């Protein structure tokens, strides 16, 4: 005898294929569980990243020196610190030097990294593994340790660089002091930063090269394409977003570079290697002008944010224009 449809018990709600949801079990805590797991990391990141930024922004609008650091009660002065910075010629000299520093380093980093990545793609298995290991070791070397090694390499009397150049016939480098000449010190820092930056960019670009189908290269060679044409018409268009992303990261890293410059030269000689981060630290440390140093730091953040946002917008437009 069949049971009427009106008297049949309603079927329990199902979750997934053939699995009923147990009656009375709350579903909201299960949805919140992933957010609860990442909450400590998010809270820690907000505290460690946003609070110092907020504090520096606050100090930049105050009269904050040694007295205020000890007894508190800093007075708001509005935009006076920024007016003092923008009205001084030294600040604009440092800004220009920072842009030159960033441009030279980023161009060398991206050019050498692209060459190394293309070479990795053409090497045999053993040589590729050896070169990748060497790049990884260079990348893993601590910044201060690598900077100290470069300090030894370029010593005037016992440095290997002067000894090698003298052996090659350049007698003028006998006892040459790299750290006493502004342009020479600038060049040493460029070599150091490029050496530290190339491994990351080269390995990342090589990882991108491995994702390009080999059939595209074979078709380009069959059509008579040269190595340069294959790179400009096949490799680079496919990896353009990766190139843009790595360039943005390198711009940020080089622009805010501080420990290498401070350990080797402390911004000298005669301010020849003083960039915006070093300038902010010197003002705050030597003059105890924490308000002015914070203003320099905030202007640095603004410049980087504008550069990064414009680059990201260009990347998004290019991706949107692609079919």
Which structural traits does this protein have?
single chain; about 325 residues; mainly alpha; MetI-like fold; two-stranded antiparallel ribbon; 13 helices; 2 strands; about 70% helix; about 0% strand; globular; transmembrane helix; transmembrane; membrane; transport; Sugar ABC transporter permease
Coarse structural class = mainly alpha
- Count all strands and give the number: 2
With helices defined by DSSP (H or I, 4 residues minimum), what is the helix count? Answer: 13
The CATH first-level class comes to Mainly Alpha
Distance between the termini: 63 Å
Q: What's the helical proportion of residues?
A: over 70%
Strand content: under 5%
Alpha carbon gyration radius: 28 Å
- Number of self-contained structural domains: 1
Shape by Cα distribution: globular
Q: What is the H level of CATH, i.e. the homologous superfamily?
A: MetI-like
pLDDT < 50 runs, ≥5 residues? none
Q: pLDDT average, as an integer?
A: 86
Largest sheet: 2 strands, antiparallel
CATH architecture, by name, is Orthogonal Bundle
Strand order of the largest sheet: 1-2
CATH topology: MetI-like fold
Organism: Planobispora siamensis
Biased composition (Pro residues): 10-24
Keywords: Cell membrane, Membrane, Transmembrane, Transmembrane helix, Transport
GO biological process, one term: transmembrane transport
Question: How does this structure look, described?
Answer:
The structure is a single chain. 72% of the residues lie in helices and 1% in strands. With 323 residues, it is mainly alpha-helical. The chain has one domain (91-321): MetI-like (MetI-like fold), CATH 1.10.3720.10. A two-stranded antiparallel sheet has the order 1-2. One of its GO terms (biological process) is transmembrane transport. It is found in: Cell membrane.
């Amino acid at each position: 005898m069949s049971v009427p449809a009106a008297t049949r018990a309603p079927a329990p709600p199902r979750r997934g294929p053939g699995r009923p949801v147990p009656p009375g079990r709350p579903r909201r805590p299960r949805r919140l569980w992933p957010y609860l797991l990442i909450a400590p990391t998010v809270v820690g990141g907000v505290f460690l990243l946003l609070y110092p930024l907020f504090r520096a922004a606050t100090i930049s609008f105050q009269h904050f020196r040694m007295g205020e650091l000890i007894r508190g009660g800093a007075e708001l002065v509005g935009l006076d610190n920024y007016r003092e910075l923008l009205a001084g010629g030294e600040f604009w000299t440092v800004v220009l030097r920072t842009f030159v520093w960033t441009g030279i380093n980023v161009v060398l980093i991206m050019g050498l990294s692209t060459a190394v990545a293309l070479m990795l793609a053409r090497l045999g298995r053993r040589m590729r593994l050896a070169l990748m290991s060497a790049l990884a070791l260079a990348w893993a070397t601590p910044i201060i340790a690598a900077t100290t090694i470069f300090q030894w390499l370029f010593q005037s009397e016992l440095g290997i660089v002067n000894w090698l150049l003298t052996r090659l016939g350049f007698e003028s480098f006998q006892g040459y002091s790299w750290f006493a000449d502004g342009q020479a010190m600038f060049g040493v820092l460029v070599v150091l930063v490029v050496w530290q930056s190339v491994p990351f960019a080269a390995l990342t670009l090589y990882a991108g090269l491995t994702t390009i189908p080999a059939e595209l290269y074979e078709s380009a060679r069959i059509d008579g394409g040269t190595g340069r044409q294959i790179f400009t018409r096949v490799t680079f268009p496919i990896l353009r977003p990766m190139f843009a992303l790595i360039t943005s990261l390198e711009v940020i890293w080089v622009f805010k570079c501080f420990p290498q410059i401070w350990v080797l030269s402390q911004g000298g000689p005669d301010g020849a290697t003083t960039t915006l981060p070093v300038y902010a630290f010197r003002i705050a440390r030597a003059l105890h002008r924490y308000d002015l140093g914070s203003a320099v730091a905030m202007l640095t953040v603004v410049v980087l944010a504008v550069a990064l946002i414009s680059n990201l917008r260009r990347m998004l437009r290019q991706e949107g224009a692609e079919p």
